[in-house]
Amino acid sequence: MEGRRKALWELVLLVLLLGTGLFLRRRELVLLAIPLAVHLVAGLALAPPQWRPRLEVTRVLSATRLVEGEELQVSLTVENRGRLLELVSVVDPVPRGWQLLEGEPKAVRRLQPGEGFTLSYRVRPRRGLYRLERVRLEVRDLLGFTVWQGELSCPAELAVLPLGEQLRGLTIRPPRTLVAAGTAPARTGGAGVEFFGTREYLPGDEVRRINWKALARRDRLAVNLYQEERAAEVMLVLDVRASAYWDERLLDYGVRAAASLVYFLLQEGHRVGLLLYGRHLAWELPGLGRRHRERLLRLLAQARLGTSAVFTQLTYLPTRFFPAGSQIVLVSPLLPGDEEWIGRAHARGYAVLVVVPDPGSFYRLTVLPRPEVDLAARLLSLERRVMLRRLLRAGVRVVEWDVRAPLAPRLAAAATRWR
After folding, report:
1. For the CA atoms of 9, 13, 18, 21, what is the dihedral angle to 10 degrees?
2. I need a labelling partner for 336 at 20 to 30 A (CA). Which of 207, 243, 273, 385 fits?
3. pLDDT tens digits along 377-397
4. pLDDT tens-digit profile of 107-125?
5. Which residue has better confidence, 419 or 47?
């Protein structure tokens, strides 16, 4: 189509030059039209009527699974399986949010029959799941009258998972635990570390567990019971409502906190599930193991801000996803009114932990320091602290995270205070 337009414009210009030259009897205008006529005739004569280049494109990625912040090397090999191609332009569309570090995702070459070339560049991809489908190509002949534009398929998949911190010292205390061993204190006595109580000695009990002081007082044998540590069911809820964040970069901190908790809780032996609440509901039910951890991280990698008239408030968060007596971990900057649902969940027998990425600290980190910015951040912080104080009085565990510092020390300090 582009070649036809070019030929049409050249024909119009040729007619104008010849007509003007003959009408005005100007020899120089007629002479000026001769090269244009030669170019037009030669281009139309050499241009094939129906033509499609025989090109093959192969894409090679240095990795198919990355952690956020790692680099990726992309190589595209273009091979000519047909006739001589005077001008081949290749463009590899780079997904939005990728940072180009080295090279260029485009090139222009002349390809002989059977010849090829490799286009290579290095990028730092953003968190997400990607399927790189096609490459855009444009082929022109020597005179520019034959232009072919199209896309060739060369699919490749890439997963960029969120980066997590190594947490320590955090202990969850849900009302209900599982039979499997873990690190959550159970409300039953047995084998453990912390003293739970005593009971009457039974045949077969270990001698080292006999409470000799109780024998001296009551003249009866008794054995010590220790608080058992078992696994629990934990449901992580990541808030992805656009109204709660105002900036998608703050969501990255929320995703990082959720990924850190996924690594830690699964390593502690708990059954962990995940729910994204915002534009729509996306979830993984509680489970164990490395494959389950991969599924949770892939779900976190897809977290994006969104708006829905149905999920504007936490009030509409469906409790059927949460097993009775389980642990709920909510990662959210929170909106006014969210404390009501959190308080009701706590009153219904759920153990609730809220991790709050502080928007005020985020704005201080990303915006140039100015008096009005500092004042706005302080107002946001005061409003949020009133809400958090209500949650603390209700018995909910709350961690307010200054995103300018790592999360791990903040959680460790909070866990020490709770103990």
Report:
1. 170
2. 273
3. 777 777 778 888 889 888 899
4. 999 999 999 999 999 999 9
5. 419
Where do we find the tokens 């890439």?
158
Name the CATH architecture for the domain at 55-161. Answer: Sandwich (2.60)
Q: Strand 222-230 and strand 181-200: pairing?
A: antiparallel
The DSSP code sequence of 333-388 is: ---TTHHHHHHHHHHTT-EEEEEEE-HHHHHHHHS---HHHHHHHHHHHHHHHHHH
Could you identify the residue written with the tokens 């007509």? 19
Task: Determine how many CB atoms are found less than 10 A away from the CB of residue 184.
Answer: 24
Structure tokens at 147: 């232009």
Dihedral, 93, 97, 98, 102 alpha carbons, nearest 10: 100
pLDDT computed for residue 158 by the predictor: 96
Q: What does the block give as tokens for 92?
A: 């590899």
Helices (H), 70-144: none
- Strand 85-91 relative to strand 128-140, pairing: antiparallel
Query: Checking DSSP bridges between strand 222-230 and strand 85-91, what pairing results, if any?
Result: unpaired
- Contact between 383 and 400 (Cβ < 8 Å): no
Which CATH code for domain 233-418?
A: 3.40.50
CA separation for the pair 88, 196 (Å, rounded): 77
Global model pTM greater than 0.90: no
Q: pLDDT of 188-198, one tens digit each?
A: 544 555 555 55
Looking at the predicted structure, is the pLDDT value of residue 280 above 50? yes
Task: Fill in the DSSP letter of residue 29.
Answer: H
